[in-house]
Amino acid sequence: MEMMRREISLRNHSGGQKGQTLIEVVVTLALIAIIIPTMFTALSAAITSADRVRDRSIVLELAQSQMESIQGQEFRPGGDYDLISHPAGFDIYVYVIDGVERCPGGEVILQRVTITVTGHHGSLQLEGYKVRR
Predict the structure, then answer these.
(1) Is 109 a domain residue?
(2) pTM of this structure
(3) Residue 132 carries which DSSP code?
């Protein structure tokens, strides 16, 4: 009989309640419902930002590469220079103004070159000069 009293006594002094109350479950679900969409919104914004930075980097690199390519090509009055290859979704436009500078005989020796590269998130313009050598 003494053993029985101890078991009963231990059961009564176990202290806390088992499980969670309905209020705790509802509060937890409400917090999850707020946090998860916020996380997805932040993740989406970060991906979009990274995509814009990547696009801007490619546009700048293409513009610089096209200018270097033109500088390495033979001087062509009229500015009919070859375009570099570029990835799909990006376009390169070259606009050349002849006769920015002419030698005394009237021959064109300097051209103004404007390169415009467009990408998914905008465009970039790069200007420079091509000199007859």
Answers:
(1) yes
(2) 0.69
(3) -
